[in-house]
Structures are given as structure tokens and as C-alpha cells.
């Protein structure tokens, strides 16, 4: 349990231990004989043309693993896939990133990868929604779309010669505001069909980026630019211009409502707890944890969610849930 | 012949993460503080839990490692015999050094951390030297080598120095002002929003040993009094927690 820095009393330690043991016994191990640790020798046929991939090395004629993980074989390729790897982008991944630089005709985005990703100006919808060639004026106005330190949501387009490229051509991608971004280990977020979740019950948006950045924020209506006509567009633009200069009182009135904020805090804390416990982060688990914390509102107020008692409860709940799904 | 006890305290600080924040995120944090519900669910005036481990560094007479959130501070105290200065023949010497390790944050690389270190050193010196009117007699001789620990610092300062004979305990309470409200024990994101910070050091008897104000914004005197009373109450709780943790740690060591 990396990073668990809580002081558990004796009963809590026992309960946590039991829950973790139960989880371990429930996990299926179809290829437990394929898992290796460093310096384990990989069983091969010593046939010709065997390609030794990542995580392997040839020592004294033996193919030996250099990382801890699972052995994978694809035709003639043998490699070891480590479990706690760095984020490895694939085409079509939905990610959450932070803009770190505004460069000519592109933005550089940090996505928890070994390099920075690039979002080209041409891969981004213009504010007025018209499809046209990007002019020099568009280039000068890039800052009005994204600035440094902005949190954005985009999709991986592919690997080009100068790095990883993103695209944000749909209305659901773009700048994220009114919320908080969390960082979890990337291997806890598995690729699913849906990464955007609108939790209507709580009025919040949840975006699970495959790179380990998770966005929890107020729900924002996704409007389709093409449908809106010119009149309302100009109204929107004037409203946006006014928003910049708000007096403190007006700012207070436009803060997120208390209830939504509570839900955002609860969800964020739930994600923190799950990431420290090392459980896979999916919407179902998050919702379960949030509902657990709401049902226990008396004993476990929001800030106690990061305390010892709630950790143990979440572990126990997860063990119970998995045993239930196993029985089905 | 008068022995002087020279106590050297070293405080090493390491910063763990500091990223920029978008306007939306900053707005969210400000809103949270205004509505008394911060990003991790704490109220404005509730501090995070503190974990104390003692005796990490065996070469020094006393050492402690304090952890709050992702921030860690390691302090160590060494005492050695030396000659007192001519001006104060009956007083000992205390020298405090704070070091911000470059592994803490990118901005601490090279000489970046020096400003912060000196600021913290001065603050600590003021509060520690004010609290002690003169140290006691010298204790056993230690090696002259300097002992430093490593500290990770993500949150605002909560530095703790445990002296070798354990009778000096200072808790620093920091109150940070954001907008029109102030909060205790800010995370690094909240800290990036602050207009100013007041660090108040309170000793065990509840007296104020030192007061440091950082940041350029002006402050009404009445607000300072407010913050002082808040810091007093928070520090009281803190000292109690620290005491119980220290006792537990030492009891655990005795059992071994």
C-alpha cells in the first residue's frame, strides 16, 4: 500500500488486513505462471528468430526478465509487460491535460507522459464554429482559447514526427473550469467505452483521463455551436466579456452552489481514497464510495473521508462487492 | 568555569509538488474558501492530521519527522559543549538552519531555495530565541559533523524542532488570508492564492513567542488579533496531539 500514511489503531489494522486478504483470494489468476520477477528466466523453446522485446534480456543463453510483470507472447515476440507502468498513449485515448506553453499554431500540453503532447490550432474548433482556414489573426488570438495552466480535455490523435498529437474537435472536449483536477496512478484507469460521465444525481461532471488525470467539476451543458444562430452568439460573447470584471459580491453569488460543491468534494475524496488503496477507478466504484460516505454522513463527515476509518470501510465494501459479482 | 550549551537545530525542507493552476481551478478554490468547504472537505479552520516520528536520526541527540498531508519536515537537534560568548556568560547559544532541499520543488534547484530557507530560519530563530531566555547547562559531547535530514514540504509550514532534553516544544501555526477569509493549514494550491500569510508561534504555556507576516498585502490590526486567537486554539490542539504522538512513539521504543 504505497503512500498510506495513516495511523490505524489495532482493530482497524486487523479489519484492513482481512479485507485485503479477501480481495486477494478473489482475484482470478489464470496466468499466474506467466508472472515473473526480475531475473526470472522465461520459458522459451529456443527456436529460431525469437524476438526478445521490452523487459527481457539474454543472459547465458537464457531469456531473463528485467522487470516485474507478466510475460506476453505475440507470434515470435516475447516481452514482459509491467503492471505499474508509465502512461502509454494509444490512439483514441481520452485524456485530461494542462497547457504549459502557447507556441506558434499549437499548444503544448502536459499529460503525465515522458514527453509533452501537442494540440495543433487546426485540431481545435474555433469559437465561432465556422470551418475555415486558420488565419494569422487566429494565431494571434490563440490565448483567448487556451492559456497557460488551463486544464483541457482532448483525444489522442496519433504519433507524428514531432511528438504526440491531440485533437479536440468535438464540443465535449475543450477547456475545463469550475472544478478540481486530481492525479492518480495511470494504471488504475482502464480503457472503457465511456470516459465522460455526467452524474446527474449530484450535478457534476466526471472525466476519467486514461493518463491518470481525473477531472471532477460542476456540470456544464454541452452546446452545439453549429445550431446556435448569430443573435444569441453575440449575446453570449458580450456576457463572457462582462464575466471578467466582477466585483467580490458578484463573484460570491456566482460561485458553485453549496450542494454541488459538497458533491464535488465527496467525489474527489473518494477518488483519493481509491487511488491510495490501489483499486481500479471506475464510475461504479466511485459512485459506490460516494454513496457509502453519504449514508455514513454522521460518523464520517467529508473531511474525515481521508481518515483511517473510511479507508478501512472502503476496503471492506470493495471486498464485499467483488465477492458479490464473483458469485453471479 | 561556565559551560555553554550550544544547541544546533537543523531543519530540512523538501517540497513535493507545485504546478500552476488554471483560472477555473483558482476560482473553484476561492469559492470553496468563501463557502467554508475546501477542496478536500475541510472547514476553513481545520488543520490536517499530523504524524510525528521521533528518533529517526541516531547521530543527533533528538530528531523528529513530522508529516502533514504530503509535506514532511525533518528536524534534528545536536548539542555540544562550547565556550559562551563574553557578553552573555550565562546564556547558551542556539543556531538554527533551515535547508530547502532541491528535491522538494523545481524552484529550489541550485540557489532557488535560499530565499525561502533564510526566511524560515529567521522566523524560527525569532520564535525559538524568544521562548528560551537561556539554555541550561551543556550536555554530552556530540560529533561536530552536521546532521541534516530530508523533508518533503507540500503544505504550509508546520515545522517542529524537538530539543535534546525535550522540554522545548514550539508549534508554529500559520494562518493564510485569501480574499476576505483566512484559512489554517493551506495546501500548496490554496497557498498560490494567498494574499498574505501570518505565522504565529505559540509555546506550551500558550504565550506567543513570535509573529511573522509574509506577503505584500496590507492587513487590518483587528484581523491580526482574530488570527492570533484562532492560531492559539489550533495550536493548543496541535500541541496536545503532538504530545500524545510523541509519548506513544517513545513508549513504543521502550518496549523494543
Give a written overview of the molecule:
Chain A: This is Putative exosome complex RNA-binding protein 1/RRP40/RRP4. Chain A: Its main location: nucleus. The complex is a heterodimer of chains A (328) and B (256). Chain A is built from eight helices and 16 strands. Chain A has 328 residues and is an alpha+beta fold. Among the domains of chain A are: 34-85, OB fold (Dihydrolipoamide Acetyltransferase, E2P) (Beta Barrel), CATH 2.40.50.100; 94-176, OB fold (Dihydrolipoamide Acetyltransferase, E2P). In chain A, the strands form four sheets. Chain A has a five-stranded mixed beta barrel with strand order 7-8-9-11-10. A four-stranded mixed β-sheet of chain A has the order 1-5-6-2, with no helix packed on it. A four-stranded antiparallel β-sheet of chain A has the order 13-16-15-14, covered by helices on one side. In chain A, helix 6 (258-277) crosses helix 7 (283-295). The relative contact order of chain A is 0.12. With 256 residues, chain B is of the alpha+beta class. Helices cover 27% and strands 28% of the residues of chain B. In chain B, a hairpin with a 4-residue loop joins strand 8 and strand 9 (208-214). The longest helix of chain B has 35 residues, at 221-255. The model of chain B is unreliable at 1-7, 13-17 and 130-172 (pLDDT under 50). Chain A binds chain B through residues 5, 7, 98, 100, 147-151, 175-181, 217, 248, 251-252, 255-256, 258, 261-262, 265-266, 268-269, 272, 301-307, and chain B through 19-25, 27-32, 34-35, 37-43, 46, 49, 51, 67, 179-180.
Q: Largest sheet of chain A, if any?
A: 5 strands, mixed, barrel
Sketch the major β-sheet of chain B.
5 strands, mixed
> Span between N and C termini of chain A?
29 Å
State the CATH architecture of the domain at 94-176 in chain A. Beta Barrel
Q: Helix and strand string of chain B, N-terminal first?
A: EHEEEEHEEHEEH
Number of helices of chain A: 8
Poorly predicted segments of chain B: 1-7, 13-17, 130-172
Helix-and-strand structural type of chain B: alpha+beta
Protein name (chain A): Putative exosome complex RNA-binding protein 1/RRP40/RRP4
Keywords (chain A): Exosome, Nucleus, RNA-binding, rRNA processing
Subcellular location (chain A): Nucleus
GO cellular component, one term (chain A): cytoplasmic exosome (RNase complex)
Amino acid at each position: 500500500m504505497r503512500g498510506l500514511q495513516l495511523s490505524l489503531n489495532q482493530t482497524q489494522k486487523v479489519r484492513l488486513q482481512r479485507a485485503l486478504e479477501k480481495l486477494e483470494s478473489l482475484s482470478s489468476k489464470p496466468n499466474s505462471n506467466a508472472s515473473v520477477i526480475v531475473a526470472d528466466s522465461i520459458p522459451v523453446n529456443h527456436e529460431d528468430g525469437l524476438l526478445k522485446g521490452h523487459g527481457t534480456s539474454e543472459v547465458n543463453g537464457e531469456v531473463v526478465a528485467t522487470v516485474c510483470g507478466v510475460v506476453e507472447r505475440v507470434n515470435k515476440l516475447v516481452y514482459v509487460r509491467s503492471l505499474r507502468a508509465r502512461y502509454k498513449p494509444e490512439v483514441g485515448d481520452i485524456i485530461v491535460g494542462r497547457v504549459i506553453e502557447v507556441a506558434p499554431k499549437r499548444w503544448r500540453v502536459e499529460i503525465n507522459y515522458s514527453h509533452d503532447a501537442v494540440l495543433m490550432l487546426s485540431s481545435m474548433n474555433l469559437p465561432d464554429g465556422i470551418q475555415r482556414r486558420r488565419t494569422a489573426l487566429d494565431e494571434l488570438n490563440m490565448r483567448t482559447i487556451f492559456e497557460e495552466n488551463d486544464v483541457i480535455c482532448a483525444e489522442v490523435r496519433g504519433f507524428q514526427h514531432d511528438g504526440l498529437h491531440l485533437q479536440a474537435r468535438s464540443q465535449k472536449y475543450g477547456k475545463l473550469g469550475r472544478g478540481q483536477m486530481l492525479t492518480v496512478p495511470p494504471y488504475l484507469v482502464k480503457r472503457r467505452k465511456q470516459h465522460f460521465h455526467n452524474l446527474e444525481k449530484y450535478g457534476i461532471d466526471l472525466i476519467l483521463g486514461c493518463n491518470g488525470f481525473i477531472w471532477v467539476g460542476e456540470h456544464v451543458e454541452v452546446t452545439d455551436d453549429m445550431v446556435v444562430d448569430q443573435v444569441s452568439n453575440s449575446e453570449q460573447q458580450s456576457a463572457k466579456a462582462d464575466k471578467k470584471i466582477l466585483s467580490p459580491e458578484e463573484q460570491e453569488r456566482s460561485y458553485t452552489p453549496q450542494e454541488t460543491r459538497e458533491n464535488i468534494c465527496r467525489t474527489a475524496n473518494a477518488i483519493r481514497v481509491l487511488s491510495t488503496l490501489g483499486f481500479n477507478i471506475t464510475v461504479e466504484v466511485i459512485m459506490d464510495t460516494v454513496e457509502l460516505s453519504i449514508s455514513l454522513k454522521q460518523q464520517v463527515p467529508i473531511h474525515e473521508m481521508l481518515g483511517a476509518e473510511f479507508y478501512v470501510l472502503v476496503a471492506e465494501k470493495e471486498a464485499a462487492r467483488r465477492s458479490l459479482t464473483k458469485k453471479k | 568555569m561556565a559551560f555553554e550549551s550550544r544547541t544546533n537545530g537543523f531543519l530540512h525542507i523538501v517540497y513535493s509538488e507545485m504546478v500552476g493552476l488554471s483560472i477555473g481551478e483558482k476560482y473553484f478554490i476561492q469559492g470553496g474558501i468563501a463557502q467554508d468547504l475546501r477542496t478536500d472537505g475541510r472547514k476553513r479552520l481545520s488543520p490536517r492530521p499530523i504524524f510525528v516520528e521521533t528518533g529517526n536520526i541516531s547521530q543527533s541527540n533528538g530528531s523528529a519527522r513530522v508529516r502533514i498531508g504530503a509535506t514532511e519536515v525533518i528536524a534534528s537537534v545536536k548539542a555540544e559543549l562550547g565556550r559562551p560568548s563574553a557578553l552573555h556568560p550565562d546564556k547558551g547559544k542556539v543556531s538554527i538552519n533551515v535547508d530547502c532541499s532541491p528535491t522538494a520543488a523545481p524552484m529550489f534547484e541550485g540557489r532557488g531555495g535560499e530565499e525561502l530557507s533564510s526566511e524560515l530560519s529567521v522566523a524560527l530563530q525569532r520564535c525559538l530565541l524568544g521562548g528560551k531566555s537561556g539554555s541550561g547547562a551543556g550536555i554530552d559531547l556530540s560529533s561536530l559533523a552536521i546532521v541534516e535530514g530530508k523533508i518533503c514540504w507540500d503544505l504550509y509550514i508546520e515545522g517542529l524542532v524537538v530539543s535534546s532534553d525535550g522540554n522545548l516544544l514550539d508549534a508554529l501555526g500559520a494562518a493564510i488570508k485569501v480574499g476576505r477569509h483566512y484559512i489554517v493549514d493551506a495546501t500548496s494550491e490554496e497557498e498560490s492564492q494567498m494574499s498574505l500569510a501570518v505565522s504565529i508561534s505559540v509555546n506550551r504555556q500558550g504565550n506567543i513567542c513570535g509573529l511573522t507576516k509574509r506577503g505584500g498585502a496590507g492587513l487590518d490590526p483587528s484581523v491580526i488579533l482574530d488570527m492570533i486567537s484562532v492560531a492559539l486554539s489550533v495550536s493548543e490542539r496541535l500541541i496536545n496531539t503532538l504530545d500524545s504522538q510523541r509519548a506513544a512513539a517513545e513508549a513504543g521504543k521502550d518496549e523494543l
